[in-house]
Amino acid sequence: MATMTAPAPQTPKPTRKDYESDQEVRWCPGCGDYSILAQMQRVCADLAIPREKLVFVSGIGCSSRFPYYMNTYGFHTIHGRAPAIATGVKCANPDLMVWVMTGDGDGLSIGGNHMLHTLRRNVDLKIVLFNNRIYGLTKGQTSPTSEMGKITKSTPIGSIEHPIQPVAFALAAEATFVARAIDGEPQHMQEVLKRAAQHKGVAFVEVFQNCNIFNDGAWEYLTAREIRDDRIIELRHGQPMKFGKNLDKGLRLKGFRLEVVQLGQGVSESDLLVHDETDEDASLAFLLSRENPDLPVPIGVFRSVSHPTYDGLMKAQIDDYTSKRGKGDLRKLIHSGQRWTVGA
Amino acid sequence: MSTPSTEPPKSQRVKEVIERVTIRFAGDSGDGIQLSGNQFTLATAMAGNDLGTLPDFPAEIRAPAGTLPGVSNFQISFSEKSIHTPGDAPDVLVAMNPAALKVNLKDLAKDGTIIVNSDNFTPVNLKKAGYTSNPLEDGSLGSRRVIQIPINELNLKALESSPLSKKERDKCRNFYALGVIYWLYDRPLEPTLQWIADKFAKNPAVVEANQTALRAGYYYADTTEIFTHSYTVRKAALPPGEYRNITGTEAMVLGLVAGATLAETQLFYGSYPITPASDILHELARHKNYGIATFQAEDEIAAVCAAIGAAYAGNIGVTGTSGPGVALKGEAIGLAVMAELPLVIINVQRAGPSTGMPTKAEQSDLLQAVVGRNSECPVAVLAPATPADCFNTAIEAIRIAVKYMTPVFVLSDGFLANSSEPWLLPDISTLEKITISHKADVNDFKPYRRDPKTLARPWVIPGMPGFEHRIGGLEKEDVTGNVSYDPQNHEKMTLTRAEKVRRIAQDIPPTQIVGEPSGQLLVIGWGSTYGAITSAVENVRARGKKVSYVHLRHLWPFPSDLGEIIRRFETVLVPEMNLGQLKLLLRGEYGLPVIGLHKVQGRPFKISEIQSKIEELI
Ligand SMILES: Cc1ncc(C[n+]2csc(CCOP(=O)(O)OP(=O)(O)O)c2C)c(N)n1
Ligand code: SF4
Hints:
The structure holds 2 protein chains of 2 kinds.
Chain A: H1 33-46, E1 54-58, E2 73-76, H2 82-92, E3 97-103, H3 104-110, H4 112-121, E4 125-131, H5 166-172, E5 177-182, H6 186-198, E6 203-208, H7 220-223, H8 225-231, E7 232-235, E8 242-243, E9 249-254, E10 257-262, H9 283-289, E11 297-304, H10 310-325, H11 330-334, E12 339-342
Parallel strand pairs in A: 1-2, 1-3, 3-4, 4-6, 5-6, 7-11
Antiparallel strand pairs in A: 5-11, 8-9, 9-10
Chain B: E1 14-18, E2 20-28, H1 33-46, E3 50-56, E4 71-79, E5 92-95, H2 98-104, E6 113-117, H3 123-128, E7 145-149, H4 151-158, H5 166-170, H6 173-184, H7 190-199, H8 204-223, E8 229-233, E9 241-247, H9 248-263, E10 267-271, H10 278-284, E11 292-296, H11 300-312, E12 316-321, H12 323-339, E13 343-349, H13 366-371, E14 380-382, H14 389-404, E15 407-413, H15 414-418, E16 420-424, E17 470-472, H16 487-502, E18 519-526, H17 530-542, E19 548-552, E20 554-556, H18 562-567, E21 569-576, H19 581-590, E22 595-598, H20 607-617
Parallel strand pairs in B: 1-8, 2-5, 5-6, 6-7, 10-11, 10-12, 12-13, 13-15, 14-15, 18-19, 18-21, 21-22
Antiparallel strand pairs in B: 2-4, 3-4, 9-16, 14-20
Bound molecules: thiamine diphosphate (TPP) and iron/sulfur cluster.
The site of thiamine diphosphate has 17 residues of chain A, from α3.
């Protein structure tokens, strides 16, 4: 370890400002990324996480510039590989709180493999996937979340690829915490990020993020003020699944499918599904995560279960093995196996 | 052709003392050839000879039994003198079936001996090996001495009273064959008997059967009269001390463990299985109580990235793979160069582009290591010379990586990894501690402020209050490390990164020259060709001819005195198992003509191949 002099003490009650770096934020004016940055800084302050314990690891993309703007430790790495690098960071020092900031292209295209394996291993990382359904930094090509038929620079006559659903992907990979937020809903996003920060294990948060330059209004079909309440449902643990301006609509199970029901006309609240984010069986969460034009799109925490973490198991295994075998003695190791002596 | 009945009576058998023997064991991959070879090696090492080995096995886990692609070989050469290679042409070929005979016959010395398991020379096996007539009967083996032993039958007879099934008893026949060879070369049985006892401790019947087979083979050779001679190779005059036999892989692992111990830091090994590098992962995973974390990643990219992440967080980050894996890791290595983090990348080189020949050795990833990434991306490159030397090289790689905050390549190869030699055990109290000396002051901390001597930036690790900062792969502003597109700054940083790696040369000891310091011919080698070149040079010099030799451990940067040494010779010859990669680097660096000698057959050089080239040049 490098030799260091005494640290400057941190202010006892941190504010958002304490987590702002001295770097000028260079996203396009109006980009949804600003909101995510602001909410993250607030959450860190609210939870008073020591700045030196925070590490933001990112890949490449507009969203991946994120670490530069946080006054914490940060590592802006290479395209798609942030989950793998963050795994190394967390395993080397499980005391750190390590966030992975990634885009839909970064995290699910070039980095899809690492994302899958990081989620299934349950490395104690907080992963925020900024989903703008486009490649921002490379100026507007389709991403793996772009909708079929989408016209972009790389698909001038329409995309012929079926999009991936990030939340469904994360659930299928057995992630222990899966949630969704929207850039335009700061309070809700703070709640979700806070929950992610407090989760022990891998936390995957998809954020609907607007790229006003290359994919402006990508989420308007859900988030526009007039329709928002009818198109979005907020999941709340232990609460019946209700939505609509007057909370007069709900979700119910019909066979193996979800259906929307109108409360009052022979249907009461007790007929509705009650959200249980702690259910070990993620089937219902998976059903909720599927894209379906007839159903509202859920935000909030889909799943939050407690499993041993990869980094924790790694450390425990090393500690356990060491206490069983004794701390390795290099001399003994070198002098093991069948040996012989040559006399002088 | 010899048969028992034509041999002289026992009393006439001679015990002959010889200087050196080379034996090749060959059989089906399922015949336990590698195991037999390793046991013979151990017995030979314990008998005090110097030795070199060359395991050579097919990539297929189990090619169809009896076929040519299924043949597995193990060659060992042992001597009363110091030797450096597993030998050019075997004096003795032990062929467990016709395919093994067919594949290996061309390599056997003209007056060599062939020992065959005659029971396996059935019409079916002969056909599988592509023989139209039985070579044991048709005279096609020429002047070679052929000893036929019905090993299957003799083995089963010896194990008549064993409670094991016939199939299990059959499995012991490699020990039967081994017993015969132990008698022939006067090897002690004890190390192998002990090994069998340890290995199969859970199953006494298996211990009993294998030990019985080994002894039965030995007694068979002793009592029947199939051999006119037995041979003794005297102990070699090795430097005094305690020894064990070690493969390159084992030495590499011990070197990594030693490096982490000397640095008093956890070592994090990220890897994805690939032949012939996987064994490093297997071995390290057993040493978790030495402060070792191992991570089997989803691919090579994740493996190197996790090692980089661990290095960023203060561990000794190491990743190991073979050429195709390095190709995948290239971009991440560039990140480590840009972020100036310590990282050790072990490349156990193998033959051919793409998947090539996974189990065969080559030295053709040198340029990949030195320049095989985008942009100006300098890293240090080291290569061990022998299996045991992997130990020192691994420690040195860790030392350079943390001292200069740079990725360091270690270029091993399939031959180094699998072959073995006696290793004089080091006194670990004499190994220098690895200290991380670059300091940072929290009151005026800049992530890219450099140590004036090494140009290393400080290794500031997340978790340290007051040092919060951001790094990444985008170009850095000098000192601050902030992102910068300034043209002058980019040039300055590019030059600085190059200079930092060049300064590693200040730690390289003066180059050792074998032979005269100037003259007509200088041979320069690197990596696993060490043994063959050394022997060739020794042979030529023993004949009174002048040739000098330099073996490079440091491939990048080169030692500071190398240019001056090269200039003192009229001709420089570089033998390499590639088409001239070091040759190209030397020409580029020093602008002097260099002659290459190349071999790309997936097999190490023979001494004779190098020797005749040297003789041609002087
Ligand atoms: C190996 C590699 N391939 C391609 C690129 C180019 N590249 C940079 S960012 C990017 C896509 C980013 O899209 P997304 O992850 O959705 O992030 P956004 O910019 O939209 O936030 C691509 C293809 C790269 N930097 N590295
Ligand atoms: S291109 Fe899009 S995603 Fe990138 S900064 Fe601009 S608005 Fe944001």
